[in-house]
Amino acid sequence: IRTIGVLTSGGDAQGMNACIRAVTRSALNKGIRVMGIRKGYNGLLRGDIVEMTAGSVADIIHRGGTILYTARCPEFLEPDNQKRASEMCKVFGIDGLVVIGGDGSFRGAKDVSKFGINVVGIPGTIDLDIACTDYTIGFDSAVNVVMDAISRLRDTSASHERCSVVEVMGRHCGEIALWAGLATGADAIMIPEDKESADFERVVRIILENRARGKNHNIIIVSEGVGGSQELAKRIHEVTGIDSRTTILGHIQRGGRPTALDVKHASMMGVYAVELLAKGETDRVVAYKNGQYVDYDIDEALAMHRDVSMDIWKANVDISTY
Ligand code: ATP
């Protein structure tokens, strides 16, 4: 491998910059050139590509977002465009590609590799929704943003004896809700993967039981994928008479300084990805599994299935009702 291209694709996540830095610096130290591809696959199709130096990644280790920008690129689903992307790689001398993103981005990488470019994916998404890995870059930072927001909400919610409904990110995956719920002592956690968790009557019952035990406020965490968080607060108020408000944390969860855990994983995975490409490997996804950095074939990784952490949900039920 003579030249590695690096891009970020799909949703942004804290720690992506630290990963770009690790890829760039470790490649340069191996004598490999590095090209930064901007705006995901859009930039690859349009040749929005800049040469990276050790200095281009200075002073970004602590910054959220991605200096390479990120995007969704629907036209990349067309095989003609995948071929064009591989031709653009050749124009810039790129013979190895590191793609930091989610499952969709890995599918795109696999398509580019069909035209002779070596590719490696790195899991970067706040959602923790990639089956092959126990960790995705951005998750810990997002959970910590939620935790910080909820500790603020708890102060005001307790003072007004309110019920706070907090909507967190996760359209298909409840991990942020689960971790943040356990970490903040939520009364209930509602996730899209489990019908019982999202049952309205059950949540009202918990609120009433906890109030009867002397609790003067409540925190209900709703994963985005469950939907109806505004409506939920209204219905809780109608049924129980308890003043209830919804807070949708939204994009705040994606921003800010990455936590130490994210910078660590981002840096280790970036170095690992470059080592794979330097060895001539292709079609691999870097993963963190059982405490070790490993890699899987992209197709094998995409075919894997992982259950949401219901053990966290059950533990929270044990702790939050007493
Ligand atoms: P996130 O977890 O943030 O959603 P993601 O990588 O799964 O990340 P997607 O929007 O699914 O996000 O995919 C990002 C981009 O990858 C798409 O906009 C598209 O350019 C490319 N992509 C997705 N699926 C495919 C596919 N099946 N074939 C080729 N390219 C794809």
Automatic annotation (TrEMBL):
Its EC number is 2.7.1.11. Pfam families: PFK. The active site is at D127 (proton acceptor). GO terms for biological process: canonical glycolysis; fructose 1,6-bisphosphate metabolic process; fructose 6-phosphate metabolic process. Allosterically activated by ADP and other diphosphonucleosides, and allosterically inhibited by phosphoenolpyruvate. Homotetramer. This is ATP-dependent 6-phosphofructokinase. The gene is pfkA.
